[in-house]
Amino acid sequence: MDLQVQFGKRVKELRLAKGLSQEALALKAEVDRTYMTSVENGKRNVAIQNIGKIIAALDISIQDFFTTDIFEGIDE
Amino acid sequence: MDLQVQFGKRVKELRLAKGLSQEALALKAEVDRTYMTSVENGKRNVAIQNIGKIIAALDISIQDFFTTDIFEGIDE
DNA sequence: TCCATATGTGACTCATAGTCCGTTGACTTA
DNA sequence: TAAGTCAACGGACTATGAGTCACATATGGA
């Protein structure tokens, strides 16, 4: 599985756990709603600045964000 | 401190620990030599695909890469 | 049925990610 | 004095990510 796909899955997982809509999270992260949609669906090769914004909006540390089975076994 | 700066520091730290030159790591990660320099110096807003390539070239898991004090306290 | 909320998609512009050519300076070894 | 390795930088270039929009779809409630 592609890393950008894994990233999207993780974002969606954490967003749903917080009971937020894509739009609410996008607002908090200061990105466009449709951009957030494509990130969650693994369509975007997100750059690290936006990764930081999104993780911060999820109220989780970088460490905790990446510490999950989703990121086991990167194909690349 | 900026996330892309923290990322660069972490890459450099792990690269030196492995005794690799920037060029050797760049070759392994399949990115440009000059690009690796600017990444380590926090000048690049690296996209997640290249983050994956670089971390893989460092022979470390995503989890372990981000589990370090360097990533404590993101300003964003 | 109508309306609001939530999500997804294709296309677009523009800034920049990333490559490839080279140079320079610091350091090391011969 | 070379001659080599390494890190950093720069200019020019191409590929692609950032950011936005119109529009579509699905759902649930009044």
From TrEMBL, chains A, B:
Record-level Gene Ontology MF annotations: DNA binding; DNA-binding transcription factor activity
Stored InterPro entries: Cro/C1-type_HTH, Lambda_DNA-bd_dom_sf, TransReg_Diox_bact_type
Pfam families reported in the protein's UniProt record: HTH_3
Keywords assigned by UniProt, alphabetized: DNA-binding, Transcription, Transcription regulation
Origin superkingdom: Bacteria
A single cellular component GO annotation: cytosol
Residues covered by the HTH cro/C1-type domain: 11-65
Coiled-coil regions listed: none
Record protein name field: Transcriptional regulator
Protein's organism: Labilibaculum manganireducens
